[in-house]
Amino acid sequence: MRQLGVTDSTFINLENPTVPQHIGGVGIYDPSTAPGKFVRFKDVLASFEHRLAKLPIFRTRLVEVPLGLDRPYWVLDPNFDVEFHIRHIALPKPGDWRQLCIQVARLHSRPLDMSRPLWEVYVIEGLDNIPDLPKGSFAVYTKMHHSLVDGAGGQSFMSALHDLEPVPSTDNGDEGGKQVVRFAEIEPSKTYLLGRALLRSGSRFTGGIRAVGRTIGGFGSMFRRLAKHELPPMQIKAPKVRFDEPVGHNRVFEARQFELSEFKKMKDAAGLTINDVAVTIISGAMRKYLQAHNELPEESLLASMPVNMRARVGETDDNNQVGSMTAMLHTNIEDPVERLQAIKKSLDEGKQYIDTPMAGVVSLPGALPPILAKPLARMYVRRKLTRRLPLGQATVITNVPGPSMNLYCAGARLVSFYPIGLINPGLGLFHAVFSFNGKIAVSVTADRDQMPDPQFYRECLDASYEELHSMLLGKSAKVVSKQRGRSDTDKSEKTRAALPGKQRAAAKAKAKAKAKAKSETKRSTRPKAGAKAKPAATKLAVVKSAPVKRAAAKKAVAKRRPAAPVVQVTPEPEAPASATA
Q: CA-CA distance, 182 to 500, in Å (whole number)?
């Protein structure tokens, strides 16, 4: 038996049917590397069951303290049944990428059974209409409660459930007999838990007083440093957009995969980091999406970013060792290179607050006993108090580096992996960046009411990537597109490379002059009065979200002005809400 730490208890206290506190991921596997080039469900089941013996935390269930007087405990489940947690399903026809996204979104919308070990796995067949995948490929969707694992810990879980070769030569079982954590096999009675909570009440009270004192002292030190200009101004104020609204029960999922080598070229050209480039692409996609819906505010949007605190706080009893920081996305800057430089500055300033109490605010609900924290969380969701908060955070962006080698499950090679985050009231959009074996994926989880058109948002991601790529490297960008079965290569001629200072301004002025001359030429050749004129396609960067034909939408995404790579996107009409997730 082991008691949950403060941060782990945060996610238990925030658990709600509307905003379930689980995270997940989708892996796609190629069975051609397995013996016989075929993998059966029972092979996957046996592989998981064998490896879970090394991860006792996934064989435990939650036991609450009566009356919610203390944090809950992990206890080994004597009735653990691996076949309840690992399930086998197939995609409906036509079994393409969109159908996979819809199925994953539906599964991710459902809360976990809190009376059992808090995880589920779905083996999904029927992916044969996703191009560039070998026949028989399958997906594995994993869903784990956030109290079990955080983003960095999820990488360890991912590695523990995979082999480094299709047929492992040796298996050392329990790895030398070393077991890090042991759990009691006898579930404690309610009387025992209540008595233990009462005995610990004195120490909890004194510990809470000390924690409050440390927090007050930390904030005092932070404000003194702010007064002396030793810290940059806090990035906490931003306009509210559709993603700051209360969320519903349903989710949508989308993802895009790029070549990691191209990200490295871009970060080298700019002299920055891969994370800077990834955040800039996400910022550009949000700008284009809101712009297309006539909802882009004049001020910059704000993002919340989880921070791995393991190196800072050392080992604790928490499975989660995560903090948080905020940074401006500078969605009010049109030029992608200028936006990249501004985001770099904001990220550097935000990192200076990681060692202050601001980073630990996310753990506040776990510091309170469940008898107080749970009713407060339910009231916050039920009364939709998000609308009354003055602060606006448009999205969460997390960047988790994955393994750089091939991984195998039951002999099948992992081709790609897309993390899936959780969303909360006022944070209805979640971006996860994950690098794995030469590829980098950007996956999107959102509230279905706030993003009813995830396919259009994927196009915004493509357009933002292509725009930044052409500005930094002066050539067309290439997207790894397993979803469409082709590389989404920019078909327009090469655009100008990024130019510093006055040269960029001169190039922009020249581009505007060319565009104006072209526009005047078109006006002079328009049909005479009485002639039946064909409707002209718009070329504005800001377009209304009225339904248009699919071909016109794709043309708007790919179109470029020869001198200035401003990518235009037009939202497509989506399927009815009941068909999206």
A: 59
- Choosing from 146, 162, 431, 469, the catalytic residue is 146
Choose among 416, 379, 419, 382: nearest CA to 399.
419
149 has a pLDDT exceeding 90: no
Which residues are within 8 A (CB) of 319 and not within 5 positions of it... i.e. 6 or more apart? Answer: 5, 8, 57, 147, 148, 149, 150, 153
In tens, the pLDDT along 112-131 reads 999 999 999 999 999 989 98
**Angstrom distance (rounded) from CA 322 to CA 7:** 8
Structure-block tokens of residue 529: 């009065």
303: pLDDT strictly greater than 70: yes
Residues 536, 393: Cα–Cα separation, whole Å: 38
Establish whether 88 is a catalytic residue.
no
What the block records as the tokens of 448 is 């279905």
Confidence of residue 289 (pLDDT cuts 50, 70, 90): very high
User: What is the distance between the alpha carbons of residues 190 and 195, in angstroms, rounded to a whole number?
Assistant: 8
- CA pair distance 150, 157, nearest whole angstrom: 10
* CATH 3.30.450.40 describes domain 2-168+184-194: no
* Residue 188 CA from chain centroid, whole number: 37
22-30 vs 479-480, strand pairing mode:
unpaired
Looking at per-residue confidence, does 170 or 111 come out higher? 111
Q: What pLDDT score does 154 carry?
A: 60
Backbone angles phi, psi at 164, to 5 degrees: -95, -5
H runs (alpha helix) in 228-368: 260-270, 274-292, 310-313, 336-351, 364-367
Alpha-carbon span 478 to 481, nearest angstrom: 9
- Per the listing, tokens 């510091």 go with 367
Mark residue 129 as left, alpha or beta (left: phi above 0; alpha: psi -120 to 50; beta: remaining). Answer: alpha
B/e letters for 10-25, b = 16+ CB within 10 Å, e = fewer, are bbbbbbbeebbbbbbb
Measured CA to CA, the distance from residue 396 to residue 430 in angstroms comes to 5
Residue 281: both structure tokens together: 């692409």
Q: How far apart are CA 95 and CA 131, in angstroms?
A: 11
Going by pLDDT thresholds of 50, 70 and 90, the confidence category of residue 352 is: very high
The phi-psi region of residue 173 (left if phi > 0; otherwise alpha if psi is between -120 and 50; otherwise beta) is: left
Does position 547 have pLDDT exceeding 60, yes or no? Answer: no
On the question of pLDDT at 533 being above 60, the answer is no
- Structure tokens given for 58: 């996934």
Answer yes or no: are the C-beta atoms of 329 and 394 closer than 8 Å: yes
Q: How far is CA 565 from the centre of its chain?
A: 27
Q: What is the Cα gyration radius of the chain? A: 26
Nearest to 108 by CA among 257, 244, 253: 253
Q: Which of 485, 469, 483 is nearest to 560 (CA)?
A: 469
> Of 204, 167, 188, 180, which Cα lies nearest the Cα of 409?
167
- Judged by phi (left if over 0) then psi (alpha if -120 to 50, else beta), residue 307 lies in beta
H or E stretch including 444? strand 439-447
